[in-house]
Amino acid sequence: MTVHTQPVAEAPDPRSFGLPVVEDGSIPAELRSLVSRVHDLIDVVANTGADRETLAEAAAVVEDLTGRLDVDRRQIGTMVERTMSDGTTEYGTITNIVSGDTSPVAPPLFLERVPGGLRGEVTLNTIYQGPPGLAHGGWVAALLDQAVGSASAVETSPGLTAKLEVNYRRPTPLFTPLEVIGRVDRTEGRKVFVSGEIRAHGEVTAEATALMIRVQIPE
Ligand SMILES: CCCCCCCCCC(=O)SCCNC(=O)CCNC(=O)[C@H](O)C(C)(C)COP(=O)(O)OP(=O)(O)OC[C@H]1O[C@@H](n2cnc3c(N)ncnc32)[C@H](O)[C@@H]1OP(=O)(O)O
């Protein structure tokens, strides 16, 4: 059961922390397409059996592209503003490794508000492999950290993870749709007690409890 001991706060605007903010709708479709293609490229490169000539050619092409794209870099800490399907405004770092719009490494996990918390679906490829065919435990923790952190940010106000405990119940498989859930259980001043879980085929593979400490909003 979700218990709110404090009223839900209006999300603070990251601009008040001096951070640049980009609206998600203003991210060019071409950049989203590039991010998605590089995501697939990472998985392919990690598994390729191409011949040496093809590998050398690909390395040169990628080196050239890296040089062409390394212009006008975003400021570290750039945030993206998105509106969830229920109208809630959410902020996250644009390169967040779990859910960042412009991170080719992100699975990506996009969370939506559901009764009792946040929910998202994600399918992991070999980028996230730990044991054979299974998700790396650190990535399982990262998904859960994101889900409970976002739940805390949306249901109360943004904070940092002070403590995260993960219980790995079953192996979390690759190439399988995963349901990721985060919720706020209770708040005590700046302390937000949260929990979440990951399910594959409806069965819990990992669950977490965490303590988030809400950041102080500048006057
Ligand atoms: C924008 C939306 C983004 C949402 C998604 C984000 C998901 C990803 C989240 C992360 O990955 S965050 C990155 C990983 N976490 C960190 O790097 C945090 C590192 N730690 C810190 O910066 C500080 O320790 C922390 C901000 C968590 C707390 O420092 P403070 O100086 O603000 O807290 P303070 O010492 O005043 O303590 C406040 C209360 O919290 C309690 N507390 C603090 N740290 C604790 C801890 N580790 N364990 C238990 N209790 C703790 C502390 O006892 C106290 O309780 P009381 O009010 O009852 O006295």
From TrEMBL:
Catalytic activity reported: decanoyl-CoA + H2O = decanoate + CoA + H(+); tetradecanoyl-CoA + H2O = tetradecanoate + CoA + H(+); dodecanoyl-CoA + H2O = dodecanoate + CoA + H(+); hexadecanoyl-CoA + H2O = hexadecanoate + CoA + H(+)
Subcellular localization, as worded in the UniProt entry: Cell projection, Ruffle membrane; Cytoplasm; Membrane
GO biological process annotation, one example: fatty acid metabolic process
GO cellular component, one term: membrane
Keywords: Apoptosis, Cell membrane, Cell projection, Cytoplasm, Fatty acid metabolism, Hydrolase, Lipid metabolism, Membrane, Transit peptide
All copies of domain Thioesterase, residue ranges: 133-203
Top-level taxon in the UniProt lineage: Bacteria
Class of enzymatic activity (EC top level): hydrolase
E.C. designation(s): 3.1.2.2
InterPro entries for this protein: HotDog_dom_sf, THEM4/THEM5_acyl-CoA_thioest, Thioestr_dom
One Pfam family hit: 4HBT
Membrane-topology descriptor: Peripheral membrane protein
GO molecular function per UniProt: hydrolase activity
SUPFAM superfamilies: Thioesterase/thiol ester dehydrase-isomerase (SSF54637)
Family recorded in the similarity comment: Belongs to the THEM4/THEM5 thioesterase family.
Name under which the protein is recorded: Acyl-coenzyme A thioesterase THEM4
Phylogenetic lineage: Bacteria, Bacillati, Actinomycetota, Actinomycetes, Streptosporangiales
